[in-house]
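<purpose> Linking amino acid order to shape
<body> The protein record starts here
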Amino acid sequence: MMMTKEETYQYLTDREISFEITDHPAVFNMEELDAVDLPYPDADAKNLFVRDSKKKNYYLITVKGDKRVNLKEFRKKHGLKNLSFASAEDLMEIMGLIPGAVTPLGLLNDKDKKVILYLDAAFSDGLIGIHPNDNRATVWMKASDLVRLIEDHGNQVEIVEI
């Protein structure tokens, strides 16, 4: 069900998306990633997979790695119901990912196209570093290419100030 790291690379190549790969030990949070020598640390992304209280709507919030997201403020600003982190089971069922490997590229596994991506506008005109459905690597690509990929797949993308 889940697109592997190699399948993700092939998917990007097949769509003529330019990307660069940084392999590294598995990382499960931003603190662990800080110990990795990344070529573009300012472009690294943090991903929050959240849901509303009814478990009807799911969102992936992707921000610059050094930012904090106040879910209550985010919810109010975007007219959403109460938000909380989605479960590991929901993450696996919807995106085929484990905690620590959350990435916008996981939306390519969202067969029902139910997750809305909220992308930090700070990425909009530059690089973004995200996992290739595996937390042992980071893929660097243009944020605009990522948006096009996700929209072409059928998921909604909202570019927002966070």
